[in-house]
Design brief:
Elements lengths: L1 H14 L2 H22 L10
């Protein structure tokens, strides 16, 4: 029973680590940028006539 509680504590410590949070924030930012550019493309690659 104690081992299960220890695993939960270690998992919560892992989720609060800076590299994990950095990867999540960068992936969310890139995904937002990609979706934004999909719907509103840059005029450099899609020039207006």
């Amino acid at each position: 029973m104690q081992k299960s509680n220890n695993q939960k504590e270690n998992f919560l410590k892992y989720l609060s680590l800076a590299p994990v949070l950095a990867v999540l924030s960068v992936s969310i930012a890139f995904s937002t940028w990609a979706v934004f550019n999909y719907f509103i493309p840059d005029l450099l690659f899609h020039p207006m006539p």
